[in-house]
Amino acid sequence: MVISPQNGCTWTYKDGKLGINITSDDGLSYLFTTHYEIERLFRKPEINAPFCVEDANLLTAYMSGLSEIIPEESQALDLGLNGVACQRFTRPTAPTSRYFFQIDNGGYIPQMGDVVTVYAKSGEAGDCLVLDPQDADGVCRLMLLNKDLMIDQGRGYYLGMMIRVQPFLVNPYRGFDGHTKGGMYA
């Protein structure tokens, strides 16, 4: 499925969550609902605001990385659209670098759209999508792809939440063996 601004896709709200009306390249219409509740959005798009060129560019970058690890296009698209919504409309979280540790990542430098892994001092690892390799504060914005990631007693992230850490704490994707706590969403 190809999604582009020319297809007339628009942002909307459904059942208290941010959504997008999608018209595919073959003319079929879909309503996609993100993970993000309206009251938790930092910026709220107007109803029927167009899926703009910026949105399309972000989605293209995110789909590039996601398609390398997720063979099912609909699952990758779900995560890619949530990535666009997370980057564009959610409040940037406070940096939480202190809860993660660095491993020898061979000098890896995260790029927008990469699927990566962060390692928490709690012993858990989280697989993430790079939303922005270095934001205005100099930290890397990530979106969690796992069901959850506990970083401390009673503190953690769940699927689709933004994580902000120093870029040197971001590692190449570790792969997924199906046995890791939290598991891969898609």
Q: Give the overall shape, derived from the CA principal axes.
A: globular
The secondary-structure class comes to alpha+beta
- What number of structural domains do the residues give? 2
Largest sheet properties: 6 strands, antiparallel
What would a concise description of this structure say?
The chain has 186 residues and is α+β, with helices and mostly antiparallel strands. It contains 2 helices and 11 strands.
Question: Can you describe what's shown?
Answer:
There is one protein chain. The protein has helices at 53-69, 73-89; strands at 10-14, 17-23, 29-37, 100-101, 115-120, 125-132, 140-144, 148-152, 155-158, 162-165, 171-172. With 186 residues, it is an alpha+beta fold. It folds into 2 domains: 5-89, no CATH class; 97-172, SH3 type barrels. Strands 4, 5, 6, 7, 10 and 11 form a 6-stranded antiparallel beta sheet that branches. Strands 1-2-3 form a 3-stranded antiparallel beta sheet, covered by helices on one side. Strand 8 (148-152) and strand 9 form a beta hairpin.
